[in-house]
Amino acid sequence: MSIDILMPALSPTMEEGALAKWHVKKGDSVKSGDVIAEIETDKATMEVEAVDEGVVEEILVPEGTEGVKVNSPIARLSGGDSAAPAPPAAAPPAPAKAEPSQAPKAAPSPEAPPPAAPKPVPAARGGPAPQPAASGQRIFASPLARRIAEQKGLDLSALKGSGPHGRIIKADVDAAQPGARAPAPAQPGAAPAAAPRQVQSLEQMGIPPGSYDLIPLDGMRKTVARRMTDSFRDVPHFPLTIDLEIDRLLEARARINAALEKQGVKVSVNDLVIKAAAVALKQVPEANASYSPEGIAMHHHADIAMAVAVPGGLITPIIRQAELKGLAQIATESKDLAERARTRKLKPEEFQGGTFSVSNLGMFGIKSFASIINEPQGAILSVGAGEKRPVVRGDQLAIASIMSVTLTCDHRVVDGATGARWLQAFKVLIEDPVTMIL
Predict the structure, then answer these.
(1) Which of 52, 128, 338, 402 is the most exposed place for a label (fewest CB within 10 A)?
(2) Does residue 210 form part of some domain?
(3) pTM for the structure as a whole
(4) pLDDT-derived band of residue 136, with 50, 70 and 90 as boundaries?
(5) Is 111 inside a domain boundary?
(6) Assigned domain for 189 exists
(7) Where in the sequence is the domain holding 133, given as residue range(s)?
(8) Is 394 exposed, middle or buried (0-12, 13-18, 19+ CB in 10 A)?
(9) What is the pLDDT of residues 313-372, one digit of tens each?
(10) Residue 343, CA atoms < 13 Å, CB-side half-sphere
C-alpha cells in the first residue's frame, strides 16, 4: 500500500512553501519520527518528520522547488504495516506533474492535512475546505471568510466576492444572511455590478519595459502584502499620538545596565518600552483585547509582539506574558528572538498570536509614524526616535529628551477613550520607570 506524504501547513496563514532539502532518497527506509525534509515557509525554515514507516517509493517534488501548494503530495511511501490509507483522490496533484491548464489558481484550504501528512502540521484555525461552485470551479475565499461562513451556516457558492479578483472576504460573509441564494444573473439592460479592482501592470501604468529590474516576490513578501492589505482595508483603525519625556528612562537604563554588566545582559530602550506596554495593558485591560465574530476576547496576559525587519519582509516574534518578566529576561529573550528571526529559525509558536505589537523605528531617526494593525490584535504601538527638544515648564523654556509614540487602534475593540487611557498609563511608566515595578 502506498502513502502520499503531503506538503504540510506549518502556520495558519501558509498557502505554499519551498521544499528546501530532502534528507531521504528513493529506496530509503524511514520510520516514524525520522526527519525527512526541510520546508521553507514565509516566516521560517522547519524540519518535517515522518509519521509512517515504509520505503521511499518516489520523490514527487525535487528539493529547491518553490511555490509548492499546501496539501499537495511531495513524496510517496510504500510498504510498512502501520501505513495509513492514502488520501482521497481529490487531493491536488503534485506541482511537478500538474498540467499547466490544471494548475490551481486559488489558495488551498487552510485545513490541516489528513493523518498521512508529516508531524509539523498544526491544527488549522481556518474554516472548511474550498467547496466547488455549481459550475465545478473552486471558490475563492479568505480563510477568515470560510471560518465565519461555517459558523453562520452559509454556502460560499451563494456569495459574490468583493475582494481582489472576486475573492470572498470577511465583509461579504458578514453582510450575507443564512440561506442566501446565489445572485441572479443580470437582466439585459441592467447596470453591471462593480467589478473588483484589477491590478495593472507597470507597463499599463506608463512605466516602459526595460527601465527597471523586476525582483520576484518570495513567500514572506507575498504574505506581508496580503495581510497588510486585508488589515488596512477591513479593520476600522485610527491613530493616537503622544510625546513622552524620557530623561529618567535613559538614566534608569544606564543604572540597570551597570548592574547587569557582570551577567552580560544589556537592556535596550525597546526592552523598557515592551515592559511598560505590558504593564499598561494590565492596568487598562480593555486595550488588551481582540475582535472576533463571536465577541471581544479579553486576554489574560500581555503577549507583546515586536516587529523585526528581516531580508524580504517583516516578522513579529513574541515576548509571552511580558508583564510577569523582569527587564533582564525580556532583554535576553528579545535578543535571542530577533537573531533567530533574521535567520528564519523561529518556531511557529514563537511568532504566531500575540495580543499587542510594538514597532520601533527610532534607531533609524524616524520621529513619528503610524503602523498597520497586526490582526487579530487590537492595537499596535509605533515608537519614534528620542531627541532633544525644547519644552515649556511653567513659564520657562527648557530642553528635554522627547520620544513620540503613536497607538493605532482597532475601533471595533479599542475606542478613543480606551486608547487615550492606555497612553496615559504608558506615559507614567515611561516617564517614571520606578512605577514599572510597583
Answers:
(1) 128
(2) no
(3) 0.61
(4) very low
(5) no
(6) no
(7) 126-181+219-234
(8) exposed
(9) 889 999 999 999 999 999 999 999 999 999 888 888 899 889 999 999 999 999 999 999
(10) 6
